Structure formats: structure tokens, C-alpha cells
Automatic annotation (TrEMBL):
TM annotation in the entry: none
Keywords of the record: Hydrolase, Protease, Serine protease, Signal
InterPro entries (alphabetical): ClpP/crotonase-like_dom_sf, PDZ, PDZ_6, PDZ_sf, Peptidase_S41A, Tail-specific_protease
Domain PDZ: 70-140
Record PANTHER family: CARBOXYL-TERMINAL-PROCESSING PEPTIDASE 3, CHLOROPLASTIC (PTHR32060:SF22), TAIL-SPECIFIC PROTEASE (PTHR32060)
Domain of life of the organism encoding this protein: Bacteria
Protein name: S41 family peptidase
GO cellular component: outer membrane-bounded periplasmic space
Signal peptide: 1-25
Family listed: Belongs to the peptidase S41A family.
């Protein structure tokens, strides 16, 4: 592929970032022109290549092709590796300005009420309309404990909001994990960083015993192509990572890199409109090879690959050199990846967890749902025969918050056929739960329950 493999290739991703000030210097303009002519995904007119500076040339390319000084590239790399000084937001270009792809929980922007989907139009009075992400980074970055004023269009109200935030050191866990109720392993990946596969593998090991998996790529803006190849190798039945086509339009299929530890079936992947780049690589390939089921909404639609070209003055040219597709050629660029199961925004993990639990108890009988129960709800269960409650145990019952943990309960016999299930703490308002009763009880005539039962519960 035009010898692109000798360069360090990866997908455009996120940022916000470290305390670095760009330093101007003479640019290796002829090197830049030659690289664009040879590797850029489209042919570039001579009139554009004749522009006097790198930034003037790249302004006429796609939004993801940019020239970076050595200092700006350090910022970019820190963003991928989740090492940040800033306000805690992940960014990408938008025709109206710079779109927030995700907001880091607990960071200055989060505390200030900013949300994914907000579009920053200016920083400290400097317009970002039509500007690349790197411009936003240079304006928003600075020393810790200094302030920056952002003007943005709210995704909720469509009104322009002004927010003054204080920059701070933000330590980001790239991989977050927990065992959800019902032994469903949940792993969230925030960036396809160099060590992401190692961290995911570690998380899988920590969640030993999981009976199903939820892999969360919501709001993940991408990262390294090589990491995407490795992550593809974590899924059962996935042998191919993606297809890439450079300016020659000739397809080249890249294999998934097999991993010693893998997710086990059933596995779900969560995506949303802010899942981009490497996240979409994984989603489209795993979906095609049936290595997992996708839940959520159609992804962002950034199916282009950038390569990094080191220049003689230690600066860097980041250039769109290829488009990526599923192994069979399904396009991603400007179309995104559609999920197998479309869910409401914010309901992705709840719906996935629910379906995992139902699949795990496929032989159980579903009872009518209980809607609008109080947070202090006590559940009454009445059998149609006299029961032997002598071996009644809380382990016979599971009350699981969907998207969360199992809720401890007290189980008590009230009479010969009736028993109660009482949560040891109040239920969460607006929360969704599943009550599962396992077939462990017997009647006084030693007749055993034929099958388990479950029902869904929503709280007022």
C-alpha cells in the first residue's frame, strides 16, 4: 500500500490536552508537498500544493489531515494515551465548530454541565468554525489551575452558552470494568491506546466466571490501528480485522491478531453516535463475523485512516491515507455502523444487560412486568400449593438492577403458601430491575418447582 506500513498509522481520535505551547519554526514545505502527492487519499490540485505554508495546504484537505509541530504532536499523543491537562473533553471536527464527543466524568467540563454533542464555537473569543481539532487544543490547553472560557451550542437547548472552566490534571482510566448482577462481565474502553489490549485482557481475567460480556465502546473516539487489530482478536469467530483501501482503491484485508484470552459467547458491544474510527472498525468487523451483537445507535461515520509522517525538523504530518471497510467491503465513512439491536439513547447497557439475563435463563417463565413500584417495594410471592419453606434461602432469589449490581434481599415465609422478598435498601428512583426466582423450592408433598420465573420491574 504505497509503503505506508513503514509509517506509524492510526486513526484520528480525541483530545484535550496537555500543557504545551507550540513553537513556530521553518517548515519542511517541500517534504510535505511530496508526501501529500504520494500518499493523500485523493489527488490534490497544484494550486493547493503551491500554498506557502503547511497549514494553508492542509486547510484544503479533509478535516483529519493536519500539520503538527513536535509540541503539538506531543499533545496529540497524550490525548490518545489518556494523559491530560485540560478540561476533560474528547473532540472532533464539525461544520459548526468543534464537537464534544464525550465528557470525562468528574472533570471540569462535566462539573460545569457540558455534554457530548455540545459544539464549541469559540475559545476565549477566538472562533473555531472551520478550524481543525488541533486549533481547539492549542486554545483550550494551558497550565493547570488557569482558566479558559468556552462558548458552545448546547445539544439540549440549541442555545449558545458561555462557560468559564479551570484547567486541571485529569487522570483517566482507559479501561473500566465490573461484574454486573447475574455474573455479566462489563468492560468499557475509552481509547484504543497502545496498552489497551493488555488492559482489556487483564480486565477479562479479573472478571473470571462471567457468564456473558458487555464491551462498551460508546463515546470512544478511536486510536491506533494496530490496537484495533489486537482488540478484534479478542472476539470469538473473528479472524479478520478490517479492509483498507488507499488512493489506488485496491482493497487489502488485515487479519485480526489472535489473543490468548478471549471474550466468550454471548458478547454484546455498545456503540452510539460518538463511537468513531477504531471503535467503528471493531463494530463493523465483529458484527459481520458474528463475534458479538451490537446494541445502541448508528455510529459516527469516520471511516478514514490517518498516517503519521515524521519530518526532518521533528514535526509531524498527519495525513488521511486510506478509507477502511468491513472485511467484506461494507463502507463506514459518512454512513457509520448500524447496531443489531437499536436502543434508546442512554438505555444501551440496560437493554443489553436485560437480554443477557433473559438468555441466561431461557427456560424460565416470564411473568407480567411490574411498573411504577415504590422505592420501598416489598415483593409478595404466592404459590398455588402448600410449600415446604424449611430450606428457604435468599440465594433462591435474585433482584438485579439492570446495568448495575445485584440487590441484597431478605426472604421470609408469611404462611404455608406465601413468602415475601424485601430489598435491604431502597430501590433507585426510575431504575429498572429484574426479579428472578430459581426453581429450588418444593411443596409439602415434595413436588419441586418445574421451572424458574422472572419478571421485569420499573420504579417510580
Amino acid at each position: 500500500m504505497h509503503n505506508l506500513k513503514k509509517y506509524f498509522s492510526f486513526l484520528l481520535v480525541l483530545l484535550l490536552l496537555s500543557n504545551v505551547t507550540a513553537v513556530s519554526a521553518a517548515e519542511p514545505i517541500n517534504e510535505i508537498r511530496d508526501l501529500i502527492k504520494e500518499y493523500y487519499i485523493e489527488d490534490v490540485p497544484a494550486s493547493v500544493l503551491a500554498k506557502p505554508t503547511a497549514k494553508e495546504i492542509t486547510k484544503h484537505l479533509d478535516p483529519y489531515s493536519v500539520y503538527m509541530t513536535a509540541e503539538e504532536f506531543a499533545q496529540f499523543s497524550n490525548g490518545i494515551e489518556q494523559q491530560l491537562v485540560g478540561v476533560g473533553i474528547v473532540l472532533d471536527e464539525d461544520e459548526k465548530g468543534i464537537k464534544i464527543m464525550s465528557v470525562i466524568k468528574g472533570g471540569p467540563a462535566d462539573r460545569g454541565g457540558m455534554k457530548a454533542g455540545d459544539i464549541i464555537v469559540s475559545v476565549n473569543g477566538v472562533s473555531l468554525i472551520g478550524q481543525p481539532v488541533q486549533k481547539a487544543v492549542s486554545l483550550i490547553s494551558g497550565k493547570a489551575n488557569t482558566s479558559v472560557t468556552l462558548h458552545y451550542i448546547s445539544v439540549d437547548t440549541n442555545e449558545t452558552v458561555t462557560k468559564k472552566l479551570t484547567r486541571e490534571l485529569i487522570k483517566l482510566p482507559n479501561v473500566e470494568y465490573q461484574m454486573l448482577g447475574g455474573e455479566i462481565g462489563y468492560i468499557r474502553l475509552n481509547s484504543f491506546s497502545k496498552d489497551a489490549t493488555k488492559e482489556i485482557t487483564n480486565a477479562i481475567g479479573k472478571l473470571n466466571g462471567a457468564k456473558g460480556w458487555i464491551f462498551d465502546l460508546r463515546n470512544n473516539g478511536g486510536g491506533y490501528v494496530s490496537t484495533a487489530q489486537e482488540v478484534a482478536g479478542l472476539f470469538p469467530n473473528v479472524n479478520k480485522a478490517f479492509q483498507i483501501r488507499d488512493k489506488t482503491k485496491q482493497p487489502e484485508i488485515y487479519a485480526a491478531i489472535p489473543q490468548k484470552v478471549k471474550f466468550t459467547s454471548p458478547t454484546h458491544i455498545l456503540i452510539n453516535e460518538y463511537s468513531a474510527s477504531a471503535s467503528e472498525m471493531i463494530a463493523v468487523s465483529v458484527k459481520e463475523q458474528k463475534g458479538a451483537t451490537l446494541y445502541g445507535q448508528t455510529s459516527f461515520g469516520k471511516g478514514s485512516m490517518q498516517s503519521l509522517f515524521p519530518l526532518s525538523d521533528n514535526s509531524m504530518l498527519k495525513l488521511t491515507t486510506a478509507r477502511f471497510y468491513s472485511p467484506k467491503g461494507v463502507p463506514v465513512h459518512e454512513t457509520g455502523v448500524t447496531p443489531n439491536i437499536d436502543t434508546a439513547v442512554g438505555e444501551e447497557i440496560i437493554t443489553s444487560h436485560r437480554d443477557q439475563l433473559i438468555a441466561k435463563h431461557a427456560t424460565y417463565q416470564k411473568l407480567p412486568a411490574l411498573n411504577g413500584v415504590p422505592v420501598t417495594k416489598t415483593f409478595n410471592v404466592e404459590m398455588n400449593m402448600e410449600m415446604d419453606w424449611s430450606k428457604l434461602s435468599p440465594q433462591d432469589v435474585q433482584l438485579i438492577q439492570l446495568g448495575g449490581n445485584e440487590v441484597p434481599v431478605e426472604v421470609k415465609a408469611e404462611d404455608h403458601s406465601k413468602m415475601t422478598i424485601k430489598p435491604k435498601a431502597n430501590l433507585q428512583s426510575k431504575g429498572k430491575y429484574m426479579l428472578i426466582i430459581h426453581p429450588k423450592w418444593t411443596s409439602k408433598n415434595a413436588n419441586r418447582m418445574q421451572k424458574g420465573i422472572y419478571l421485569e420491574v420499573t420504579v417510580q
